[in-house]
From TrEMBL:
<keyword id="KW-0479">Metal-binding</keyword>
<dbReference type="InterPro" id="IPR040230">
    <property type="entry name" value="TIKI1/2-like"/>
</dbReference>
<dbReference type="GO" id="GO:0030178">
    <property type="term" value="P:negative regulation of Wnt signaling pathway"/>
</dbReference>
<dbReference type="GO" id="GO:0005886">
    <property type="term" value="C:plasma membrane"/>
</dbReference>
<keyword id="KW-0472">Membrane</keyword>
<keyword id="KW-1003">Cell membrane</keyword>
<comment type="function">
    <text>Metalloprotease that acts as a negative regulator of the Wnt signaling pathway by mediating the cleavage of the N-terminal residues of a subset of Wnt proteins. Following cleavage, Wnt proteins become oxidized and form large disulfide-bond oligomers, leading to their inactivation.</text>
</comment>
<comment type="similarity">
    <text>Belongs to the TIKI family.</text>
</comment>
<keyword id="KW-0482">Metalloprotease</keyword>
<dbReference type="GO" id="GO:0006508">
    <property type="term" value="P:proteolysis"/>
</dbReference>
<dbReference type="Pfam" id="PF01963">
    <property type="entry name" value="TraB_PrgY_gumN"/>
</dbReference>
<keyword id="KW-0378">Hydrolase</keyword>
<dbReference type="InterPro" id="IPR002816">
    <property type="entry name" value="TraB/PrgY/GumN_fam"/>
</dbReference>
<dbReference type="GO" id="GO:0046872">
    <property type="term" value="F:metal ion binding"/>
</dbReference>
<dbReference type="GO" id="GO:0016055">
    <property type="term" value="P:Wnt signaling pathway"/>
</dbReference>
<protein>
    <recommendedName>
        <fullName>Metalloprotease TIKI</fullName>
        <ecNumber>3.4.-.-</ecNumber>
    </recommendedName>
</protein>
<keyword id="KW-1133">Transmembrane helix</keyword>
């Protein structure tokens, strides 16, 4: 029999303040595999929080576009130009094998949703010859039967982002795309070739039935559902890099594998923990009356130098919240207006917005997103961006209305008061700027304001001229 939720450990930590805020550890697997095992108090903490923050904004087309750009080789280069001849041909053969097997790997449920093997292959592996070798290595590592069968269902992080939209919560991200992307591009060429070669060897051995991956997705799910807070595999899920260290490697290759593992642990875990922790602190200080729910990869809360350690060093009390422990029952959160941050500390990474209520929270383009660091093909990206632009155009058309005569007038008696802030959207990021002085509360923020002033001045001048003329006649 399955254990009760109250008996399991949890991936929830409470930041003791008034109102309380929360850390929640996620994993990058279909949410349906873990949702029933997540304790009720974790779900309640999510529902009661005002603002939900993730590592990246998974629903923003800009995020996907930036990740795609980061993965590509410099203009004009192809993978065939940079890889050793034998590795390139092994890679090509393996991808041909995956494409051939994909129809057999897919489930009836996926086909029922309208997912076809060719479409799914192109969504994941399309344009592979233009990608940098390190990203091809990660792509190959994710093209397994188990991973293919899970496509079409949002991973836990994405599901929480969609739920936050549905509940009309404010959302944000504590990292910039470049901060997740650039460390992977920082490996030297010999290390990348070693990693790609090892990944291909693992996949070729799997095909031959002579190899078993030490940490499978099933192992990850089992450890997560049982609330195992000490498992090393969460670090590999968080960094999304396979483990190359094994006893069969020759001594010089084992050194290379340990160097790669150490590099990624430093760059993708420890450095990011420090940066994320500082930004969480900034948000808590700037919005002391708001309750936050920070959903990050579980590996960011385990081991040494965690995000929790950063907060504790700053004087915050953070305690683990077991499954059966009740959380503070605060008032349900109200939808906030234009939440944003203008402080230099995090004006570059905060992504907050008043979110519309989606009709279909689980959109196909989002469901197909693999791990955070593996956006889909450029074709799918363009499809998302077209949809985004179409929605934006409809919104603009809806806002337009017939101009009234009163639109031309500006109330100058209100111009001495402090105006409200003006909200702008730049590259998907929302900023708040103060209105320039001289524009009153009732000024219209549109391009014809200056012409309205000119018309008003012309009318005043005409009236003054007429008054002078009448005085002369008298």
């Amino acid at each position: 029999p399955l254990p009760q939720q109250s008996e399991l450990n949890s991936f929830l930590w409470t930041i003791k303040r008034d109102p309380p805020s929360y850390f929640f550890g996620t994993i990058h697997v279909p949410y349906t595999r873990v949702w029933d095992f997540i304790p009720e108090n974790s779900k309640r903490a999510f529902q009661q929080s005002h603002i939900v923050y993730f590592e990246l904004d998974l629903t923003d087309p800009y995020t996907i576009s930036a990740l795609t750009s980061c993965q590509l080789l410099p203009q004009g280069e192809n993978l065939q130009d940079v890889l050793p001849h034998d590795i390139y041909h092994r890679l090509k053969r393996h991808l041909e094998y995956v494409k051939l097997m994909m129809p057999l790997w897919m489930t009836p449920d996926q086909r029922g949703k309208g997912l076809y093997a060719d479409y799914l292959f192109n969504a994941i592996a399309g344009n592979w010859e233009r990608k940098r070798p390190v990203w091809v290595m990660l792509m190959v590592n994710s093209l397994t039967e188990v991973d293919i069968k899970s496509r079409g269902v949002p991973v836990l992080d994405l599901y929480l982002a969609q739920e936050a939209e549905r509940l009309r919560k404010q959302t944000g991200a504590v990292e910039k795309v470049e901060e997740q992307c650039h460390p992977l591009n920082g490996l030297n060429f010999s290390q990348v070739i070693f990693a790609l070669n090892q990944t291909l060897l693992q996949q070729e051995s799997l095909r031959a039935g002579s190899f078993q991956i030490p940490y499978t997705t099933e192992d990850l799910i089992k450890h997560y559902n049982c609330g195992d807070l000490n498992s090393i595999i969460f670090n590999h899920d968080t960094s999304q890099v396979p483990n190359f260290i094994n006893a069969t490697l020759p001594p010089h290759e084992r050194v290379t594998a340990q160097e790669i593992d150490s590099y990624f642990r430093q760059e993708l875990i420890y450095k990011r923990n420090e940066r994320m922790g500082r930004r969480v602190k900034d948000l808590l200080e700037e919005y002391p009356d708001k309750s936050f729910f920070f959903a990050f990869g579980a590996g960011h809360f385990m081991g040494n130098n965690t995000v929790i350690d950063v907060l504790r060093r700053e004087g915050y009390e953070v305690e683990h919240t077991p499954a059966g422990q009740a959380i503070n029952n605060g008032k349900p959160p109200k939808t906030l207006l234009a939440f944003s941050s203008t402080s230099p500390a995090h004006s570059t990474y905060v992504v907050s917005q008043e979110l519309p209520l989606p009709l279909h929270p689980h959109k196909e383009e989002e469901e197909l997103l693999p791990h955070l660091l593996l956006p889909d093909s450029i074709d799918l990206l363009e499809k998302v961006e077209r949809k985004y632009k179409k929605k934006k155009k409809k919104k603009q058309q809806k806002k337009q209305r017939l101009r009234q005569f009163n639109d031309l007038w500006v109330r100058i008696e209100e111009s001495t008061t402090d105006p409200p802030p003006r909200i702008r959207i730049i590259n998907g990021y929302i900023t708040v700027e103060p209105q320039p002085r001289g524009h009153g509360r009732f000024s219209h923020a549109r391009t014809d304001t200056s012409s309205a002033h000119q018309l008003f001045q012309s009318l005043i001048l005409s009236l003054l001229t007429l008054a002078l003329h009448m005085l002369r006649l008298h």
